[in-house]
């Protein structure tokens, strides 16, 4: 629910404003690019951070499974609050603060105030790890981001850090990814191997498919800039050219289309085509 409006002219009249979402399908998410899977996990961590510091106190999601969430324009939204519990559980001893999962058990501390300090946060965070992170984060992680992702996986899998620290690491990953900092060691000269045609598009394309593409019809990947796209094209034996248009992902990164050939060039003010010089003759059919 986005909010509610109450008409003062109508006694007890309330109008609810709702968002329409689609159920979370884990199999479909696994087939999405890493950037989109990271977005889901980042949204979940931001939600858990809010629940740990909500106006109602710390809130635990007792039925924490993908079916409790929906996707709205690429963002993860919580749809079922029936099993949300506000406030930490009461306790008399540390043994009252046992958190049991199928493969692991954890224990929170019983505070002097008689509540299990941080138990709700621990429950939410470990459930995020076992239902979302373990499936969505590690696979196809950009190599330079792997140490940070490994840090998240190890820390949440062992509950070694708070939701505040977890969110901090997620935001660090987002910053590094958006800013292109992970490309510091990339050879800039690689782009010199390509002829650059600005304001030009291609027609009669010979497409090829690649893993985790944004398109099911060809190879469309997220890149920070044309140099990164050139690096990817060089790593694909069948790639002879790629183009970059004004299309961007949710992080502001560019979408690059890779192909093995095309029949002719056409005017397109929003597109720039990059053709590998060593394969320029093969690129045009």
Automatic annotation (TrEMBL):
Lineage in the entry?
Eukaryota, Metazoa, Chordata, Craniata, Vertebrata
Gene Ontology annotations of biological process type: skeletal system development
Any one GO molecular-function label of the UniProt entry: non-membrane spanning protein tyrosine kinase activity
Q: What is this protein called?
A: FAM69 protein-kinase domain-containing protein
- Please provide, in alphabetical order, the Gene Ontology terms of the cellular component aspect for this entry: extracellular region
